[in-house]
TrEMBL record:
SMART domains: PKS_KS (SM00825). The active site is at residue 162. It catalyses: a fatty acyl-[ACP] + malonyl-[ACP] + H(+) = a 3-oxoacyl-[ACP] + holo-[ACP] + CO2; (9Z)-hexadecenoyl-[ACP] + malonyl-[ACP] + H(+) = 3-oxo-(11Z)-octadecenoyl-[ACP] + holo-[ACP] + CO2. It comes from the Bacteria. This is 3-oxoacyl-[acyl-carrier-protein] synthase 2. GO terms for cellular component: cytosol. Involved in the type II fatty acid elongation cycle. Catalyzes the elongation of a wide range of acyl-ACP by the addition of two carbons from malonyl-ACP to an acyl acceptor. Can efficiently catalyze the conversion of palmitoleoyl-ACP (cis-hexadec-9-enoyl-ACP) to cis-vaccenoyl-ACP (cis-octadec-11-enoyl-ACP), an essential step in the thermal regulation of fatty acid composition. Residues 1-408 form the Ketosynthase family 3 (KS3) domain. GO terms for biological process: fatty acid biosynthetic process. It comes from Candidatus Scybalomonas excrementavium.
Length: 412
């Protein structure tokens, strides 16, 4: 099985539209949550979201291409541009059939569905746009990225709700390990802060109805009461170590383990003992042949819902035992909300930056400990701890669990 390394990263997030801006925001504890300004929320219980700001599609692609993409695809193409540039991947020198794409979206475009459904009701079926389907479907993020960069290798779209981003990178990792491709552009993207999106999650009682941005997304806090919708994209370039070294690439980190499981329990709630999430972590650690005592940091799924945070805590304890109390656990969602299909990919980028810079960001807004969630959730940032391994968890509606283990690159 081939070793797989990370050579490029790109991000569009509510606290910055580049990896550098995003990472600086995390280091500074910036909370990108504010009142929704994309539609009138007067009749909505949930009034806050973590919106991407100052995004201009034509800064990343030509205007004609942008018009043929919905926002979730635009985010993906924009994040890919940054990742490809950092990786220094010259497609003119690559065998395009050996470069693939694995970019998922949990939902696709709710915006175009809303717009065309209104047309259908008001003007009839003949007025529905012929572009509805190609703009709406979730695989078009991967498709548009592949078209933009001429990626002719394996091209897939993993859809596992909130675990989409992590599964997308994990399956890309597997594809390289198996020798199907040499390089994969991988990640997740989402843009679902729309009337129907917010209304749907509100009716599910999954969202926080807090009106205080600083106390809305508060993972593991005793007063947590739901997640805050986020959006954006995270895209990485990963490749076989052999390929990266042959082209003289700057290696950022190594992927050493990946686990994917299912709870087979409930459509929205994780398994009550965290068993499925625990198995995913176990698989990732076993694949890496890592000593659990050497793993000190977990980027948790940490949604700020009661069940998720409790059951994820139980899963961590089940895997690590007493060592769990020596670990640092944080939630990036405390600052950027829950990016749904983009979340795991953006959090993967956080893990790579954590092992390269030995900085663990705080869980913003975490103030009141919960006796049932009694681990170290990083009330303050940690800047004096070497981080060799970073374990990232994602848990999706439907019982989907994914864990991916990132390691500081230490050469041969």
């Amino acid at each position: 099985m081939k070793r797989v390394v990370v050579t490029g990263m790109g991000a569009i997030t509510p606290i910055g539209n580049s990896v550098e801006a995003f990472w600086n925001g995390l280091k500074e504890g910036v909370v990108g949550i504010k009142p929704i300004d994309r539609f009138d929320t007067t009749e909505y219980k949930a009034k806050l979201a973590a919106q991407v700001e100052n995004f201009v599609a034509k800064d990343y692609m030509d205007a004609k291409s942008a018009r043929r993409m919905e926002l979730f695809s635009q985010y993906a193409v924009a994040a890919t541009k940054e990742a490809m540039e950092q990786a220094g991947l010259d497609m003119e020198k690559e065998d395009r059939t050996r470069v693939g794409c694995s970019i998922g979206s949990g939902i696709g475009s709710l915006q175009v569905i809303e717009k065309e459904c209104q047309k259908l009701q008001e003007k009839g079926p003949a007025r529905v746009s012929p572009m509805l389907v190609p703009l709406m479907i979730s695989n078009m993020a991967a498709g548009n990225v592949a078209i933009a960069y001429g990626l002719k290798g394996k091209c897939i779209n993993v859809v596992t709700a909130c675990a989409t981003g992590t599964h997308s990178i994990g399956e890309a990792y597997r594809s390289i390990q198996a020798g199907e491709v040499d390089v994969m552009v991988a990640g997740g993207t989402e843009a679902a802060i729309t009337p129907i999106g917010v209304a749907g999650f509100s009716s599910l009682t999954a969202l926080s109805f807090s009106d205080d941005p600083k106390r809305a997304s508060i993972p593991f806090d005793k007063e947590r009461n739901g997640f805050i919708m986020g959006e954006g994209a995270g895209v990485v370039v990963i490749e076989s170590l052999e390929h990266a070294k042959a082209r003289g690439a700057n290696i950022l980190a190594e992927i050493v383990g990946y686990g994917a499981t299912c709870d087979a329990f409930h459509i929205t709630s994780p398994a009550e003992d965290g068993e499925g999430a625990a198995r995913a972590m176990e698989f990732a650690i076993k694949e890496a042949s890592a000593d659990k005592n050497d793993i000190l940091y977990i980027n948790a799924h940490g949604t700020s819902t009661h069940h998720n945070d409790l059951f994820e805590t139980m899963a961590i304890k089940n895997v690590f035992g007493e060592h769990a109390y020596q670990m640092y656990i944080n939630s990036t969602k405390s600052m950027i909300g829950h990016g749904l299909g983009a979340a795991g990919a953006i959090e993967f980028i956080t893990c790579v930056k954590t092992v390269t810079e030995n900085f663990i960001h705080k869980t913003a807004g975490y103030e009141i400990p919960d006796e049932e969630c009694d681990l170290n959730y990083c009330k303050e940032a940690v800047c004096d701890q070497e981080v060799v391994y970073a374990l990232s968890n994602s848990l999706g509606f439907g019982g989907h669990n994914a864990s991916i283990l990132v390691k500081k690159y230490q050469g041969e």
